[in-house]
Amino acid sequence: MSKKLFIETLGCAMNSRDSEHMIAQLTEKEGYEAISDFREADLILINTCSVREKPVSKLFSELGIFNKKKKPGAKIGVCGCTASHLGEEIIKRAPYVNFVLGARNVSKITEVLHKDKAVEIDINYDESEFAFDDFRTSPYKAFINISIGCDKACTYCIVPKTRGDEISIPDALIIREAERAVDSGAKEIFLLGQNVNNYGRRFSGEHEKVNFSELLRRLSKIEGLERLRFTSPHPFHMDDEFIEEFASNPKICKSMHMPLQSGSTKVLKDMKRGYSKEWFLNRVEKLRAECPQVSISTDIIVAFPGESDEDFEDSLDVMRQVRFNQIFSFKYSARPETEAEHFTNTVDEEVASDRLTALQSLNTEIVDEINATSLGKTYRVYFEELIKDYFVSGRSDNNIVIKVKGSDELLGEFRDVKITSIGRTILTGEVVA
Ligand code: SAH
Ligand code: SF4
Ligand code: F3S
């Protein structure tokens, strides 16, 4: 009988891809089978995120529950970004944890599994020339890493400390991985990296200097590949070549994530983001001029240390000017080993909450107005998921989530869908062709 694996994945898409790789390695090399109830598992893995404080405290309470209710003899492993930054401390605080595996060391999962109390968290470890396994949780869409780590030093962010410096994965490896995914049925490829449009800055070995625009051109030649998406591009690296390639390449989906973080040039400087409010607005203008149908999403942090009422007003001003299609908004959370952790001009908790509420209600207003204009329009949808009440959902090219009544016959298929009713996060429609 096969051994059972339970894995919980927190955090971003890079963690999801790391989990897919660990599942594949444990299945192929160690005979595990993934299950959804941790109480029956022989191995419990938690793939953690430490980008904000909340998930870290959640980790220890969750580990306690795993330990209390797990099957006798079951092992517990802590992986991902919190593993990288807390390391041995995890075993000190939760001595029943069997091993700790950092976000930059996932290729070692089958090694640490057999070393009790192993702590493998080397952020200089080079996984860039190592092929990720082909196993994927979705057969329709393939996530592919194009770089590891991050070479920026945003003063609020812990990621460079958990994933190390940025190294690009050789384009030949990426293209082969994409070809295999398309051969096995995926029509959409989703490229992942902390700063995808900084691709090609540094490879670990001798490689042809391919930049992100060239990588996109090469990938889009793959026959059978219909859609190409990526996240996250960095506003600082949005040069004209990149925007023009984005706009003119028909396989690239017309939805762009542009993480603003703040609309205030002063706060952006304190965050060390490398661009100003004007540069950001200029890039949006260029993007919309080249590609009028583009939808734009963003990340915004409120109440960064020193953010005044006027600075916050600048964030709202950018929102009003750009009218983002989607916003991920966060209250600033001080993180260990970051520069901003030592900034003393912190913003009052109550002010922070009020700002988050104000920002989110402006966003709701804008998104409702944008969504209302979709009624009666027709979009080409790629269906990916069965959802409750006999609906199937998918995305338009410009990333609108749309559902229609239907069955699994629609999964992995493209259809033209006319929008018949509007919701805030999902639109409903009917297949017209
Ligand atoms: N490399 C990506 C971001 C990865 S982290 C980029 O630069 O866009 C995802 C998001 O988490 C960030 O965009 C930021 O908005 C948010 N974030 C990161 N650190 C944070 C912190 N200390 N407090 C609050 N939000 C944070
Ligand atoms: Fe963090 Fe900045 Fe790197 Fe994004 S670019 S991962 S926000 S340091
Ligand atoms: Fe991702 Fe969280 Fe790490 S956002 S890079 S899993 S800190």
From TrEMBL:
<comment type="function">
    <text>Catalyzes the methylthiolation of N6-(dimethylallyl)adenosine (i(6)A), leading to the formation of 2-methylthio-N6-(dimethylallyl)adenosine (ms(2)i(6)A) at position 37 in tRNAs that read codons beginning with uridine.</text>
</comment>
<feature type="binding site">
    <location>
        <position position="157"/>
    </location>
    <ligand>
        <name>[4Fe-4S] cluster 2</name>
    </ligand>
</feature>
<keyword id="KW-0949">S-adenosyl-L-methionine</keyword>
<comment type="similarity">
    <text>Belongs to the methylthiotransferase family. MiaB subfamily.</text>
</comment>
<dbReference type="InterPro" id="IPR007197">
    <property type="entry name" value="rSAM"/>
</dbReference>
<keyword id="KW-0479">Metal-binding</keyword>
<feature type="binding site">
    <location>
        <position position="49"/>
    </location>
    <ligand>
        <name>[4Fe-4S] cluster 1</name>
    </ligand>
</feature>
<feature type="binding site">
    <location>
        <position position="12"/>
    </location>
    <ligand>
        <name>[4Fe-4S] cluster 1</name>
    </ligand>
</feature>
<feature type="binding site">
    <location>
        <position position="81"/>
    </location>
    <ligand>
        <name>[4Fe-4S] cluster 1</name>
    </ligand>
</feature>
<feature type="domain" description="MTTase N-terminal">
    <location>
        <begin position="3"/>
        <end position="118"/>
    </location>
</feature>
<protein>
    <recommendedName>
        <fullName>tRNA-2-methylthio-N(6)-dimethylallyladenosine synthase</fullName>
        <ecNumber>2.8.4.3</ecNumber>
    </recommendedName>
</protein>
<keyword id="KW-0408">Iron</keyword>
<dbReference type="InterPro" id="IPR058240">
    <property type="entry name" value="rSAM_sf"/>
</dbReference>
<dbReference type="InterPro" id="IPR006638">
    <property type="entry name" value="Elp3/MiaA/NifB-like_rSAM"/>
</dbReference>
<dbReference type="InterPro" id="IPR020612">
    <property type="entry name" value="Methylthiotransferase_CS"/>
</dbReference>
<dbReference type="InterPro" id="IPR005839">
    <property type="entry name" value="Methylthiotransferase"/>
</dbReference>
<dbReference type="GO" id="GO:0046872">
    <property type="term" value="F:metal ion binding"/>
</dbReference>
<dbReference type="Pfam" id="PF00919">
    <property type="entry name" value="UPF0004"/>
</dbReference>
<feature type="domain" description="Radical SAM core">
    <location>
        <begin position="136"/>
        <end position="369"/>
    </location>
</feature>
<dbReference type="Pfam" id="PF04055">
    <property type="entry name" value="Radical_SAM"/>
</dbReference>
<keyword id="KW-0411">Iron-sulfur</keyword>
<dbReference type="InterPro" id="IPR023404">
    <property type="entry name" value="rSAM_horseshoe"/>
</dbReference>
<dbReference type="GO" id="GO:0005829">
    <property type="term" value="C:cytosol"/>
</dbReference>
<dbReference type="GO" id="GO:0051539">
    <property type="term" value="F:4 iron, 4 sulfur cluster binding"/>
</dbReference>
<comment type="subunit">
    <text>Monomer.</text>
</comment>
<feature type="binding site">
    <location>
        <position position="154"/>
    </location>
    <ligand>
        <name>[4Fe-4S] cluster 2</name>
    </ligand>
</feature>
<keyword id="KW-0819">tRNA processing</keyword>
<dbReference type="InterPro" id="IPR013848">
    <property type="entry name" value="Methylthiotransferase_N"/>
</dbReference>
<feature type="domain" description="TRAM">
    <location>
        <begin position="372"/>
        <end position="433"/>
    </location>
</feature>
<keyword id="KW-0004">4Fe-4S</keyword>
<dbReference type="Pfam" id="PF01938">
    <property type="entry name" value="TRAM"/>
</dbReference>
<dbReference type="InterPro" id="IPR038135">
    <property type="entry name" value="Methylthiotransferase_N_sf"/>
</dbReference>
<keyword id="KW-0963">Cytoplasm</keyword>
<dbReference type="InterPro" id="IPR006463">
    <property type="entry name" value="MiaB_methiolase"/>
</dbReference>
<dbReference type="InterPro" id="IPR002792">
    <property type="entry name" value="TRAM_dom"/>
</dbReference>
<dbReference type="GO" id="GO:0035597">
    <property type="term" value="F:tRNA-2-methylthio-N(6)-dimethylallyladenosine(37) synthase activity"/>
</dbReference>
<feature type="binding site">
    <location>
        <position position="150"/>
    </location>
    <ligand>
        <name>[4Fe-4S] cluster 2</name>
    </ligand>
</feature>
<keyword id="KW-0808">Transferase</keyword>
